[in-house]
Amino acid sequence: MAQFQYTAQTAEGKKIKGTMNAADEAQVQQLLREKNSFLLTAKEVQATRSVRQFKPKILSEFCRQLSTLTAAGVTLVRALTIIAAGEAVRPKEREVYEDIVRQIRQGIALSDAMEQQGGAFPPLMIYMFRSAESSGNLDKVSMQMAILYEKDHKLNTKISSSMTYPKILAVMIVGVILILTQFVLPQFEEMFETMDEMPALTKWLMGMTDFMGSYWYVVVGAVVLIWVGVRALMTIPQVRLFWHWVQVHIFVFGKLQRTICTYRFARTLSSLYAAGIPIVTALQIAKKTIGNDYIEAQFDTVIPFVRAGNTLSEGLDQVDGFVRKLTDAIRVGEETGSLDAMLMSTSETLEYDADIAINKMVSYVEPAMLIIMGIVVALVMAAVFGAIYGSYDSIAGM
After folding, report:
1. Which of 27, 135, 324, 367 sits a CA distance of 20 to 30 A from 204?
2. What confidence tens digit (pLDDT) does each residue in 118-169 have?
3. What pTM was estimated for this model as a whole?
Protein backbone atom coordinates (compact mmCIF):
# COMPACT_ATOMS: atom_id res chain seq x y z
CA MET A 1 0.00 0.00 0.00
CA ALA A 2 0.98 3.63 -0.57
CA GLN A 3 0.11 6.77 1.34
CA PHE A 4 -1.88 9.46 -0.51
CA GLN A 5 -2.41 13.09 0.40
CA TYR A 6 -5.84 14.12 -0.85
CA THR A 7 -8.21 17.04 -1.14
CA ALA A 8 -11.92 16.20 -1.18
CA GLN A 9 -15.29 17.89 -0.99
CA THR A 10 -18.11 16.79 1.29
CA ALA A 11 -21.76 16.59 0.28
CA GLU A 12 -22.28 19.94 2.04
CA GLY A 13 -19.64 21.55 -0.18
CA LYS A 14 -16.89 21.76 2.45
CA LYS A 15 -13.33 21.05 1.34
CA ILE A 16 -11.30 18.67 3.46
CA LYS A 17 -7.66 17.56 3.33
CA GLY A 18 -5.95 14.49 4.76
CA THR A 19 -3.82 11.43 4.17
CA MET A 20 -4.94 7.87 3.45
CA ASN A 21 -3.32 4.49 2.80
CA ALA A 22 -4.55 2.86 -0.38
CA ALA A 23 -3.38 0.68 -3.24
CA ASP A 24 -3.96 3.40 -5.84
CA GLU A 25 -5.88 6.62 -6.52
CA ALA A 26 -9.01 4.70 -7.51
CA GLN A 27 -9.21 3.12 -4.07
CA VAL A 28 -8.79 6.56 -2.46
CA GLN A 29 -11.77 7.77 -4.50
CA GLN A 30 -13.82 4.73 -3.50
CA LEU A 31 -13.05 5.08 0.21
CA LEU A 32 -13.96 8.76 0.16
CA ARG A 33 -17.21 8.02 -1.69
CA GLU A 34 -18.16 5.66 1.14
CA LYS A 35 -17.82 8.67 3.48
CA ASN A 36 -20.06 10.80 1.20
CA SER A 37 -17.09 12.81 -0.05
CA PHE A 38 -15.81 13.45 -3.56
CA LEU A 39 -12.13 13.32 -4.46
CA LEU A 40 -10.71 16.49 -5.98
CA THR A 41 -6.95 15.78 -6.00
CA ALA A 42 -4.77 12.97 -4.77
CA LYS A 43 -0.99 12.77 -4.64
CA GLU A 44 1.13 9.85 -3.50
CA VAL A 45 3.36 10.78 -0.57
CA GLN A 46 6.90 9.58 -1.11
CA ALA A 47 8.81 8.33 1.91
CA THR A 48 10.99 11.24 3.05
CA ARG A 49 12.91 9.34 5.67
CA SER A 50 14.66 6.06 5.86
CA VAL A 51 15.03 4.39 9.22
CA ARG A 52 17.50 1.59 9.76
CA GLN A 53 15.69 -1.61 10.65
CA PHE A 54 15.36 -2.03 14.40
CA LYS A 55 17.62 -4.63 15.97
CA PRO A 56 16.08 -7.95 17.07
CA LYS A 57 16.34 -6.96 20.75
CA ILE A 58 14.25 -3.81 20.17
CA LEU A 59 11.70 -5.71 18.06
CA SER A 60 11.43 -8.39 20.73
CA GLU A 61 10.81 -5.86 23.51
CA PHE A 62 8.24 -4.01 21.38
CA CYS A 63 6.31 -7.19 20.54
CA ARG A 64 6.41 -8.50 24.11
CA GLN A 65 5.07 -5.26 25.57
CA LEU A 66 2.40 -5.01 22.89
CA SER A 67 1.30 -8.59 23.56
CA THR A 68 1.14 -8.07 27.33
CA LEU A 69 -0.83 -4.83 27.08
CA THR A 70 -3.35 -5.95 24.43
CA ALA A 71 -3.92 -9.27 26.23
CA ALA A 72 -4.80 -7.24 29.35
CA GLY A 73 -7.51 -5.39 27.43
CA VAL A 74 -5.61 -2.14 26.83
CA THR A 75 -6.60 -0.43 23.58
CA LEU A 76 -4.07 -0.44 20.77
CA VAL A 77 -3.54 3.34 20.81
CA ARG A 78 -3.10 3.35 24.58
CA ALA A 79 -0.71 0.38 24.43
CA LEU A 80 1.48 2.04 21.80
CA THR A 81 1.45 5.30 23.76
CA ILE A 82 2.68 3.46 26.86
CA ILE A 83 5.42 1.74 24.85
CA ALA A 84 6.54 5.05 23.31
CA ALA A 85 6.77 6.65 26.77
CA GLY A 86 9.12 3.98 28.12
CA GLU A 87 12.31 5.23 29.77
CA ALA A 88 14.55 2.88 27.78
CA VAL A 89 13.08 3.95 24.43
CA ARG A 90 15.49 5.99 22.33
CA PRO A 91 14.39 9.18 20.54
CA LYS A 92 14.44 7.56 17.08
CA GLU A 93 12.30 4.67 18.31
CA ARG A 94 9.92 7.02 20.13
CA GLU A 95 9.49 9.05 16.95
CA VAL A 96 8.50 5.90 15.05
CA TYR A 97 6.06 4.74 17.74
CA GLU A 98 4.42 8.17 17.97
CA ASP A 99 3.98 8.30 14.20
CA ILE A 100 2.28 4.88 14.30
CA VAL A 101 -0.10 6.15 17.00
CA ARG A 102 -0.89 9.21 14.89
CA GLN A 103 -1.72 7.09 11.84
CA ILE A 104 -3.85 4.62 13.82
CA ARG A 105 -5.92 7.52 15.17
CA GLN A 106 -6.57 8.45 11.53
CA GLY A 107 -8.02 4.99 10.93
CA ILE A 108 -4.98 3.31 9.41
CA ALA A 109 -4.30 -0.32 10.32
CA LEU A 110 -1.32 -1.11 12.55
CA SER A 111 0.47 -3.18 9.90
CA ASP A 112 0.04 -0.42 7.30
CA ALA A 113 1.31 2.19 9.75
CA MET A 114 4.37 0.02 10.48
CA GLU A 115 4.96 -0.34 6.74
CA GLN A 116 5.13 3.45 6.42
CA GLN A 117 8.06 3.76 8.86
CA GLY A 118 10.83 3.68 6.26
CA GLY A 119 12.04 0.14 6.92
CA ALA A 120 12.12 0.23 10.73
CA PHE A 121 10.09 -2.99 10.90
CA PRO A 122 10.99 -6.11 8.88
CA PRO A 123 8.54 -7.49 6.27
CA LEU A 124 8.07 -10.68 8.33
CA MET A 125 6.71 -8.71 11.27
CA ILE A 126 4.43 -6.58 9.06
CA TYR A 127 2.91 -9.62 7.34
CA MET A 128 2.43 -11.46 10.62
CA PHE A 129 0.66 -8.46 12.18
CA ARG A 130 -1.50 -8.07 9.07
CA SER A 131 -2.53 -11.70 9.43
CA ALA A 132 -3.22 -11.14 13.15
CA GLU A 133 -5.47 -8.16 12.35
CA SER A 134 -7.56 -10.39 10.10
CA SER A 135 -7.85 -13.22 12.65
CA GLY A 136 -8.14 -11.00 15.74
CA ASN A 137 -5.31 -12.61 17.73
CA LEU A 138 -2.82 -9.73 17.83
CA ASP A 139 -1.70 -10.55 21.38
CA LYS A 140 -0.76 -14.14 20.50
CA VAL A 141 1.03 -13.21 17.28
CA SER A 142 2.89 -10.42 19.08
CA MET A 143 4.15 -12.88 21.68
CA GLN A 144 5.15 -15.30 18.92
CA MET A 145 7.14 -12.51 17.24
CA ALA A 146 8.70 -11.55 20.59
CA ILE A 147 9.97 -15.10 21.10
CA LEU A 148 11.22 -15.29 17.51
CA TYR A 149 13.22 -12.04 17.67
CA GLU A 150 14.48 -12.89 21.15
CA LYS A 151 15.97 -16.11 19.73
CA ASP A 152 17.44 -14.11 16.85
CA HIS A 153 19.03 -11.70 19.35
CA LYS A 154 20.45 -14.56 21.42
CA LEU A 155 21.92 -16.21 18.31
CA ASN A 156 23.58 -12.97 17.17
CA THR A 157 24.89 -12.35 20.69
CA LYS A 158 26.29 -15.88 20.91
CA ILE A 159 28.06 -15.52 17.56
CA SER A 160 29.51 -12.17 18.63
CA SER A 161 30.53 -13.47 22.05
CA SER A 162 32.16 -16.56 20.55
CA MET A 163 34.61 -14.32 18.71
CA THR A 164 35.54 -12.23 21.76
CA TYR A 165 38.31 -14.53 22.97
CA PRO A 166 39.87 -14.93 19.49
CA LYS A 167 39.85 -11.13 19.13
CA ILE A 168 41.62 -10.78 22.48
CA LEU A 169 44.21 -13.33 21.37
CA ALA A 170 44.70 -11.44 18.09
CA VAL A 171 45.35 -8.21 20.01
CA MET A 172 47.78 -10.07 22.28
CA ILE A 173 49.66 -11.42 19.25
CA VAL A 174 50.05 -7.89 17.87
CA GLY A 175 51.13 -6.68 21.32
CA VAL A 176 53.74 -9.44 21.67
CA ILE A 177 55.15 -8.63 18.23
CA LEU A 178 55.40 -4.91 19.07
CA ILE A 179 57.06 -5.58 22.45
CA LEU A 180 59.60 -8.00 21.00
CA THR A 181 60.45 -5.88 17.96
CA GLN A 182 60.37 -2.45 19.60
CA PHE A 183 61.80 -3.16 23.06
CA VAL A 184 63.53 -6.56 23.15
CA LEU A 185 65.44 -6.66 19.86
CA PRO A 186 66.84 -3.09 20.15
CA GLN A 187 68.60 -4.16 23.39
CA PHE A 188 70.78 -6.52 21.35
CA GLU A 189 71.36 -4.19 18.42
CA GLU A 190 74.86 -3.11 19.50
CA MET A 191 75.87 -6.73 19.97
CA PHE A 192 74.54 -7.66 16.56
CA GLU A 193 76.48 -4.83 14.86
CA THR A 194 79.80 -6.42 15.94
CA MET A 195 78.99 -9.57 14.03
CA ASP A 196 80.45 -10.16 10.58
CA GLU A 197 77.24 -11.69 9.30
CA MET A 198 73.86 -11.84 11.06
CA PRO A 199 71.50 -14.79 10.51
CA ALA A 200 68.91 -14.12 7.79
CA LEU A 201 65.99 -14.32 10.25
CA THR A 202 67.67 -11.85 12.62
CA LYS A 203 68.45 -9.49 9.76
CA TRP A 204 64.85 -9.56 8.59
CA LEU A 205 63.46 -8.88 12.10
CA MET A 206 65.93 -6.03 12.66
CA GLY A 207 64.89 -4.49 9.35
CA MET A 208 61.22 -4.76 10.31
CA THR A 209 62.00 -3.20 13.69
CA ASP A 210 63.74 -0.23 12.08
CA PHE A 211 60.93 0.21 9.58
CA MET A 212 58.23 0.11 12.28
CA GLY A 213 60.14 2.63 14.37
CA SER A 214 60.74 5.08 11.52
CA TYR A 215 57.60 4.64 9.42
CA TRP A 216 54.93 3.52 11.89
CA TYR A 217 52.48 5.99 10.39
CA VAL A 218 52.83 4.22 7.02
CA VAL A 219 51.87 0.91 8.65
CA VAL A 220 48.88 2.46 10.41
CA GLY A 221 47.79 4.17 7.20
CA ALA A 222 48.11 0.92 5.25
CA VAL A 223 45.97 -0.95 7.79
CA VAL A 224 43.28 1.77 7.62
CA LEU A 225 43.35 1.77 3.81
CA ILE A 226 43.03 -2.02 3.69
CA TRP A 227 40.08 -1.90 6.11
CA VAL A 228 38.33 0.84 4.09
CA GLY A 229 39.13 -0.95 0.83
CA VAL A 230 37.66 -4.24 2.03
CA ARG A 231 34.46 -2.50 3.16
CA ALA A 232 34.23 -0.75 -0.20
CA LEU A 233 34.70 -4.03 -2.04
CA MET A 234 31.86 -5.59 -0.04
CA THR A 235 29.50 -2.99 -1.53
CA ILE A 236 30.13 -4.41 -5.03
CA PRO A 237 27.41 -7.05 -5.64
CA GLN A 238 29.69 -9.51 -7.47
CA VAL A 239 32.39 -9.36 -4.78
CA ARG A 240 29.83 -9.67 -1.99
CA LEU A 241 28.22 -12.62 -3.79
CA PHE A 242 31.59 -14.40 -4.10
CA TRP A 243 32.44 -13.75 -0.44
CA HIS A 244 29.10 -15.19 0.67
CA TRP A 245 29.74 -18.23 -1.55
CA VAL A 246 33.07 -18.69 0.26
CA GLN A 247 31.33 -18.44 3.64
CA VAL A 248 29.10 -21.45 2.97
CA HIS A 249 31.84 -23.56 1.32
CA ILE A 250 34.91 -22.83 3.43
CA PHE A 251 36.32 -25.78 5.38
CA VAL A 252 34.85 -26.25 8.90
CA PHE A 253 33.26 -22.77 9.16
CA GLY A 254 31.10 -23.35 6.08
CA LYS A 255 29.02 -25.91 7.95
CA LEU A 256 28.30 -23.35 10.67
CA GLN A 257 27.17 -20.78 8.10
CA ARG A 258 24.95 -23.28 6.28
CA THR A 259 23.31 -24.34 9.56
CA ILE A 260 22.64 -20.75 10.67
CA CYS A 261 21.28 -19.69 7.26
CA THR A 262 19.03 -22.75 7.07
CA TYR A 263 17.76 -22.15 10.60
CA ARG A 264 16.85 -18.51 9.86
CA PHE A 265 15.01 -19.47 6.67
CA ALA A 266 13.13 -22.39 8.25
CA ARG A 267 12.10 -20.35 11.28
CA THR A 268 10.73 -17.49 9.17
CA LEU A 269 8.99 -19.76 6.66
CA SER A 270 7.43 -21.74 9.49
CA SER A 271 5.95 -18.62 11.12
CA LEU A 272 4.57 -17.25 7.84
CA TYR A 273 3.11 -20.55 6.64
CA ALA A 274 1.45 -21.20 10.00
CA ALA A 275 -0.13 -17.72 9.80
CA GLY A 276 -1.77 -18.60 6.47
CA ILE A 277 0.53 -16.58 4.21
CA PRO A 278 0.67 -18.05 0.65
CA ILE A 279 3.81 -20.12 0.11
CA VAL A 280 5.16 -17.92 -2.72
CA THR A 281 4.77 -14.76 -0.63
CA ALA A 282 6.29 -16.55 2.35
CA LEU A 283 9.33 -17.51 0.25
CA GLN A 284 9.77 -13.93 -0.94
CA ILE A 285 9.85 -12.73 2.68
CA ALA A 286 11.84 -15.63 4.14
CA LYS A 287 14.70 -15.28 1.66
CA LYS A 288 15.38 -11.78 3.02
CA THR A 289 16.10 -13.19 6.49
CA ILE A 290 18.77 -15.70 5.40
CA GLY A 291 21.62 -13.21 5.70
CA ASN A 292 23.58 -14.60 2.73
CA ASP A 293 23.38 -13.01 -0.72
CA TYR A 294 24.59 -16.14 -2.50
CA ILE A 295 21.75 -18.27 -1.14
CA GLU A 296 19.20 -15.47 -1.53
CA ALA A 297 20.07 -15.00 -5.21
CA GLN A 298 19.15 -18.62 -5.95
CA PHE A 299 15.53 -17.92 -5.00
CA ASP A 300 15.16 -15.96 -8.24
CA THR A 301 14.78 -19.38 -9.88
CA VAL A 302 13.25 -21.26 -6.93
CA ILE A 303 10.22 -18.97 -6.53
CA PRO A 304 9.09 -19.18 -10.21
CA PHE A 305 9.68 -22.94 -10.00
CA VAL A 306 7.32 -23.26 -7.02
CA ARG A 307 4.83 -20.80 -8.53
CA ALA A 308 4.65 -23.04 -11.61
CA GLY A 309 3.11 -25.80 -9.45
CA ASN A 310 6.14 -27.78 -8.33
CA THR A 311 6.58 -28.85 -4.74
CA LEU A 312 8.50 -26.75 -2.23
CA SER A 313 10.92 -29.58 -1.47
CA GLU A 314 11.84 -29.90 -5.17
CA GLY A 315 12.43 -26.17 -5.35
CA LEU A 316 14.65 -26.06 -2.25
CA ASP A 317 16.63 -29.05 -3.54
CA GLN A 318 18.07 -26.61 -6.08
CA VAL A 319 19.47 -24.30 -3.38
CA ASP A 320 23.18 -24.64 -2.70
CA GLY A 321 23.84 -23.60 0.89
CA PHE A 322 21.04 -25.24 2.89
CA VAL A 323 21.57 -28.35 4.98
CA ARG A 324 19.93 -31.49 3.64
CA LYS A 325 17.83 -31.89 6.78
CA LEU A 326 15.51 -29.04 5.72
CA THR A 327 14.42 -30.45 2.36
CA ASP A 328 14.05 -33.95 3.79
CA ALA A 329 11.73 -32.66 6.53
CA ILE A 330 9.69 -30.57 4.07
CA ARG A 331 9.28 -33.57 1.76
CA VAL A 332 7.92 -35.63 4.65
CA GLY A 333 5.61 -32.77 5.65
CA GLU A 334 4.24 -32.49 2.10
CA GLU A 335 3.58 -36.24 1.93
CA THR A 336 1.84 -36.38 5.32
CA GLY A 337 0.00 -33.04 5.03
CA SER A 338 1.74 -31.59 8.10
CA LEU A 339 4.13 -29.11 6.50
CA ASP A 340 3.65 -26.43 9.17
CA ALA A 341 4.47 -28.85 12.00
CA MET A 342 7.51 -30.22 10.19
CA LEU A 343 8.81 -26.72 9.50
CA MET A 344 8.42 -25.78 13.16
CA SER A 345 10.18 -28.91 14.47
CA THR A 346 12.95 -28.57 11.87
CA SER A 347 13.61 -24.93 12.83
CA GLU A 348 13.89 -25.97 16.49
CA THR A 349 16.30 -28.77 15.58
CA LEU A 350 18.40 -26.44 13.44
CA GLU A 351 18.51 -23.93 16.30
CA TYR A 352 20.11 -26.60 18.46
CA ASP A 353 22.48 -27.57 15.63
CA ALA A 354 23.52 -23.91 15.20
CA ASP A 355 24.32 -23.66 18.90
CA ILE A 356 26.49 -26.78 18.72
CA ALA A 357 28.22 -25.52 15.56
CA ILE A 358 29.10 -22.19 17.22
CA ASN A 359 30.66 -23.98 20.19
CA LYS A 360 32.62 -26.21 17.83
CA MET A 361 33.85 -23.19 15.88
CA VAL A 362 35.19 -21.62 19.08
CA SER A 363 36.92 -24.89 19.99
CA TYR A 364 38.76 -24.71 16.64
CA VAL A 365 39.60 -20.99 16.67
CA GLU A 366 41.08 -20.73 20.18
CA PRO A 367 43.88 -23.32 19.78
CA ALA A 368 44.61 -22.00 16.27
CA MET A 369 45.19 -18.50 17.67
CA LEU A 370 47.40 -19.88 20.45
CA ILE A 371 49.46 -21.80 17.88
CA ILE A 372 49.91 -18.62 15.83
CA MET A 373 51.06 -16.74 18.93
CA GLY A 374 53.50 -19.53 19.79
CA ILE A 375 54.94 -19.51 16.25
CA VAL A 376 55.45 -15.73 16.35
CA VAL A 377 57.20 -15.84 19.73
CA ALA A 378 59.31 -18.83 18.63
CA LEU A 379 60.47 -17.02 15.48
CA VAL A 380 61.50 -13.92 17.43
CA MET A 381 63.30 -15.97 20.08
CA ALA A 382 65.06 -18.02 17.38
CA ALA A 383 66.23 -14.81 15.73
CA VAL A 384 67.54 -13.40 19.02
CA PHE A 385 69.23 -16.53 20.36
CA GLY A 386 70.58 -17.47 16.95
CA ALA A 387 72.34 -14.11 16.73
CA ILE A 388 73.58 -14.37 20.33
CA TYR A 389 75.12 -17.79 19.74
CA GLY A 390 76.62 -16.46 16.52
CA SER A 391 78.22 -13.57 18.40
CA TYR A 392 79.67 -16.00 20.98
CA ASP A 393 81.17 -18.06 18.17
CA SER A 394 82.72 -14.92 16.69
CA ILE A 395 84.23 -13.94 20.06
CA ALA A 396 85.55 -17.48 20.58
CA GLY A 397 87.13 -17.43 17.14
CA MET A 398 88.88 -14.16 17.91
Report:
1. 367
2. 888 988 888 889 888 887 888 888 998 898 889 888 878 877 777 777 778 7
3. 0.68
